[in-house]
């Protein structure tokens, strides 16, 4: 099977998911209504609660949830063969991620924009909610620390990406002013903004920025990490319309253009290229390198973002729900946001199985588990752009490296904003009022503490990252349990939430137990990760039990008010 056939099958599945399944979810399960007054209007404060054009908000949501994970995960997981990765990305996006992202967005909208952590207190119980916050805190801490290191590594290894990465902030600020203060039409602003970003990519390719070994008394690694945390702190405090929204939107459009270029390269190279993008990776890899874990359950936590991700629920309920203009926009923003990430994962799979030129070169890259990742994506995708569109190898690498950096950066700044919310929620639980600035300082201090815990090069940023996949998927299953409880209370069909909930919980819990055993291996014991994994497992089991009890209570209890469904029935749109 050629790369083109695989690409067309994947695109068809995503299109069917959005056009058919998401419409069913929006109309029959969640019953989205344009007459419902969203938190952005009810609680509008011009800082976090801001009614937003659905296309701009989609850009924020898409780039915030995407990050580097939908590149890293699939680029590693193809070591088991391309078919398992392809099936999990496509089926997971359509039936798992889309449901999860749209569902958590809807749940938050119907609860005044509260985060999924706060909702756990109402729908699962106070005991479960406190443990839920522990899992969420650890997950967000992993994200901001690890992504700071990923971005730092890319800025050092690909110095041509430095100018477009930081220049994108200036472009975003100008876009925000143009749209929200000068009221310029969105389409021409978008065109100018995207052209400016690609001009920065061309400029960056011509003017690479390599920092000296000592810069302001720091190594390049230390400087970039500090700069990223300072940027993230400022971005998390500014009103969303100033930087977060326009940055994510213009990045989303630019990055979507990048995906079009990548998919277009597969098409053009297949039809007209001198080097056809044939699949060089095995469908099922029966010659795995020593030490490679089993396909089941590790595939399902190695590919988290791009199939289903608990982090998405944090974004949906943490920032996105506070900016929805009309509830009916949730289907486009939430479900299609998940599809956007699925497209990125599909593009990554095509790059690492069809962009690399030979089976021998592929096996050399995948000589051990964990190899591949962003570098394999940049190498394989760059070859596709070069063969399909004729872009110079250096420019192709700059385009893809910038894509990866911008995805990771938008996830990092959103993650810091979300973690600030969680710190404030923890303060409320402890009956201590924590305002925005002190909460942000806590986030920065804890994040930098973890990142620099093993050296000023940022080695500690990846210290607890091995736990991300299982923690992320367990969080997704717990978020789905809240959606299920809400649907049962409203006497609606809960199966679209319960089926992925059960599968994801079983697989991720299985993976967490396997990791727990691995952390005690005599030749490679890691007692810190063992201890954290134990905490995550206990918290997840406890919350799961509380969720099952909550579902039983919901079944036996009286039906919940149908969100004014009777009064809204005549207003409800077919979404």
Quaternary arrangement of the chains shown?
single chain
The CA-CA distance between the termini, in Å, is 36 Å
Percentage of residues in DSSP E strands: under 5%
Principal-axis shape equals globular
Percentage of helical residues? over 70%
- Which regions contain 5 or more consecutive residues with pLDDT less than 50? 564-575
Largest sheet: none
What is the N-to-C order of secondary-structure elements (H for helix, E for strand)? HHHHHHHHHHHHHHHHHHHHHH
Question: Average pLDDT value?
Answer: 88
Number of extended strands: 0
SS-based structural class?
mainly alpha
Rg, please? Answer: 22 Å
- Helical segment tally? 22
Attribute tags:
single chain; 575 residues; mainly alpha; globular; disordered C terminus
Can you give a write-up of this model?
It is built from 22 helices and no strands. The chain is mainly alpha-helical. The protein has a domain of 103 residues. It is 71% helix and 0% strand. It is globular.
Summarize the topology.
Elements: H1 3-29, H2 39-42, H3 54-66, H4 69-77, H5 82-109, H6 116-123, H7 126-157, H8 162-181, H9 186-206, H10 220-237, H11 244-272, H12 295-302, H13 310-318, H14 329-355, H15 359-365, H16 373-389, H17 393-429, H18 436-451, H19 468-489, H20 495-518, H21 527-556, H22 565-568
């Amino acid at each position: 099977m050629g790369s083109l056939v695989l690409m067309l099958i994947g695109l068809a599945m995503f299109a069917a998911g959005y056009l058919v399944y998401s419409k069913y979810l929006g109309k029959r399960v969640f019953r989205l209504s344009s007459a419902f007054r969203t938190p952005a209007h009810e609680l509008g404060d011009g800082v976090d609660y801001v009614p937003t054009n659905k296309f701009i908000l989609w850009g924020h949501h898409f780039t915030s949830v995407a990050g580097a994970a939908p590149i890293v995960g699939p680029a590693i997981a193809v070591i088991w063969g391309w078919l398992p990765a392809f099936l999990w990305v496509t089926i997971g996006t359509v039936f798992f991620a889309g449901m999860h992202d749209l569902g958590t967005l809807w749940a938050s909208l119907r609860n005044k924009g509260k985060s999924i952590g706060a909702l756990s207190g109402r729908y699962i119980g106070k005991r479960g909610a406190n443990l839920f916050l522990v899992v969420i805190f650890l997950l967000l801490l992993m994200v901001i620390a690890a992504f700071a290191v990923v971005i730092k590594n890319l800025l050092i290894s690909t110095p041509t990406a430095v100018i477009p990465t930081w220049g994108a902030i200036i472009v975003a600020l100008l876009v925000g002013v143009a749209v929200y203060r000068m009221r310029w039409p969105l389409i021409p602003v978008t065109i100018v903004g995207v052209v400016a970003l690609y001009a920065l990519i061309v400029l960056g390719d011509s003017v690479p920025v390599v920092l000296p070994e000592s810069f302001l008394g720091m190594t390049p690694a230390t400087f970039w990490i500090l700069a990223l945390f300072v940027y993230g702190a400022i971005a998390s405090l500014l009103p969303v319309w100033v930087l977060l929204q326009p940055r994510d939107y213009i990045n989303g459009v630019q990055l979507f253009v990048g995906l079009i270029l990548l998919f277009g390269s597969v098409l053009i190279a297949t039809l007209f290229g001198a080097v056809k993008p044939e699949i060089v990776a095995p469908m099922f890899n029966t010659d795995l390198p020593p030490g490679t874990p089993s396909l089941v359950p590790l595939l399902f936590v190695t590919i988290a973002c791009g199939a289903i991700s608990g982090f998405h629920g944090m974004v949906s309920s943490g920032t996105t729900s506070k900016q929805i203009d009309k509830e009916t926009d949730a289907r486009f923003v939430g479900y299609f946001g998940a599809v956007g990430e699925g497209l990125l994962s599909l593009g990554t799979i095509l790059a690492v199985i069809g962009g690399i030129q030979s089976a021998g070169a592929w096996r050399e890259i995948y000589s051990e588990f964990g190899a591949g990742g962003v570098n394999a994506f940049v190498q394989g995708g760059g070859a596709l752009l070069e063969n399909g569109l004729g872009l110079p190898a250096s420019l192709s690498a700059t385009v893809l490296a910038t894509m990866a950096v911008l995805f990771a950066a938008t996830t990092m700044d959103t993650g810091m904003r979300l973690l600030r919310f969680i710190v404030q929620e923890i303060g409320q639980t402890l009956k201590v009022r924590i305002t925005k600035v002190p909460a942000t300082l806590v986030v920065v201090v804890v994040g930098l503490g973890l990142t620099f815990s093993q050296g000023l090069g940022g080695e500690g940023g990846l210290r607890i990252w091995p736990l991300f996949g299982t923690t992320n998927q367990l969080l997704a299953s717990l978020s789905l349990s809240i959606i299920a409880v809400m649907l049962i209370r409203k006497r609606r069909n809960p199966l679209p939430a319960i089926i992925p909930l059960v599968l994801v919980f079983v697989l991720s819990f299985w993976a967490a137990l396997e990791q727990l055993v691995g952390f005690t291996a005599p030749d490679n014991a890691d007692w810190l990760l063992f201890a954290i994994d134990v905490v995550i497992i206990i918290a997840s089991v406890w919350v799961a039990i509380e969720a099952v009890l909550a579902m039983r209570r919901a079944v036996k209890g009286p039906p919940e008010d149908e969100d004014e469904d009777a009064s809204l029935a005549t207003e409800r749109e077919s979404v």
